[in-house]
Write a structure and sequence with these properties.
single chain; 25% strand; binds adenosine monophosphate; 13 strands; alpha/beta; 4-stranded mixed β-sheet; 9-stranded mixed β-sheet
Length: 311
């Protein structure tokens, strides 16, 4: 099975309490595609400027990501984002956003990208997400992300887009903002009423939760002691989640739960180094090892009840 992703391809300048990087490869579609490429064939759809060089293309090539639908505007500049994190690495502070060629982004999908059974609409203008969804008639499982900016500036259009997808993958603050509901369970329920089959709520260092009509499944974040840069963690999570589902070719209660764990595994690698550095250099043994660790440390059911102290 193949998976198509539409979203930003960027240069990021990043500052965290642990260091800084200037103009490194980033963007939601980039982080997503890299992560998903470990599980399935990926088509990336986006736009870059003439400043996007061999070093950047090589990252996509190394992971066999199909970039035929990444348009190059030779006389333009690639989307640029500058962000800073304080010790609370769950909150990104945007210092600068230069849309550049992304401002007039009009995704052009080849027949190959349109024919994927799995589709991820990364954070772009909600109307564009809807247009892409409508072009991908053979997509059987479509997930999307969004951000606070679209929730506050065009909630109605965003809801119209949510109504045509199967799964929403957003963070807890966005879920609350979108539903005007402080309680996360009620928020998920309200979101499901838009016709979604699944809602995934990301909670940064605290993990992520999956809601379906009859499932509630939480996965912790891997207990890392060295987190350097959370940029792209959400997209990397979504890439592991959707990539695994696409690789398996079916969406069931069981593949969804495993997809949650793979999402968490991939996100845990992403934050260990700046930008795409860590996921770019990852191998399957590392992924398998971390998946096994997850199985081990979430095995709470082998502790008999009588051994649990009751105060
Ligand atoms: P995340 O940390 O998963 O929320 O995503 C971070 C990535 O999103 C960075 O690599 C940025 O290049 C990209 N990004 C930041 N702002 C925007 C925006 N307004 N639209 C699209 N992508 C963005």
């Amino acid at each position: 099975m193949s998976l198509t992703v539409v979203g930003s391809v960027a240069f990021d300048s990043l500052a965290t309490p642990f260091g800084e990087r200037d103009k490194v490869l980033g963007g939601a579609a980039t982080h997503f595609a890299l992560s998903a490429s470990f599980f399935t064939d990926v088509n990336a759809v986006g736009v870059v400027g003439g400043d996007f060089g061999d070093e950047e293309w090589d990252v996509f090539k190394r992971h066999n990501i199909n970039t035929d639908d990444i348009e190059i505007v030779a006389d333009g500049k690639t989307f640029f984002w500058k962000g800073r994190y304080d010790y609370d690495m769950n909150t990104a502070h945007t210092l600068d956003t230069q849309l550049n060629v992304f401002e007039t982004f009009n995704p052009k999908l080849s027949d190959n990208s349109k024919s994927s059974k799995f589709l991820f609409l990364a954070n772009i203008l909600p109307m564009l997400q809807k247009q892409v969804r409508e072009q991908c008639k053979s997509a059987e499982f479509v997930a999307m992300d969004t951000m606070n900016f679209w929730i506050s500036s065009m909630k109605e259009q965003l809801i119209e887009t949510i109504k045509v997808v199967d799964c929403l993958i957003i963070n807890d603050a966005e879920a609350r903002q979108l539903t005007d509901e402080p309680n996360i369970h009620k928020a998920a329920k309200k979101l499901m009423e838009f016709g979604l089959k699944a809602v995934v709520i990301k909670r940064g260092e605290y993990g992520a939760t999956l809601f379906t009509e009859d499932t509630y499944f939480s996965v912790p974040a891997y207990p890392l002691e060295s987190v350097f840069d959370p940029t792209g963690a959400g997209d990397t999570f979504a890439g592991g989640f959707m990539g695994y589902l696409s690789g398996q070719g079916e969406v069931t209660a069981s593949t969804l739960r495993r997809a949650m764990v793979y999402g968490s595994v991939m996100a845990s690698f992403n934050v260990e180094k700046f930008g795409t550095e860590r996921v770019d250099a990852l191998d399957y043994d590392e992924i398998n090892k971390r998946f096994a660790d997850f199985k081990q440390f979430t095995h709470f059911d082998d502790i008999p009840f009588e051994k649990v102290a009751v105060a």
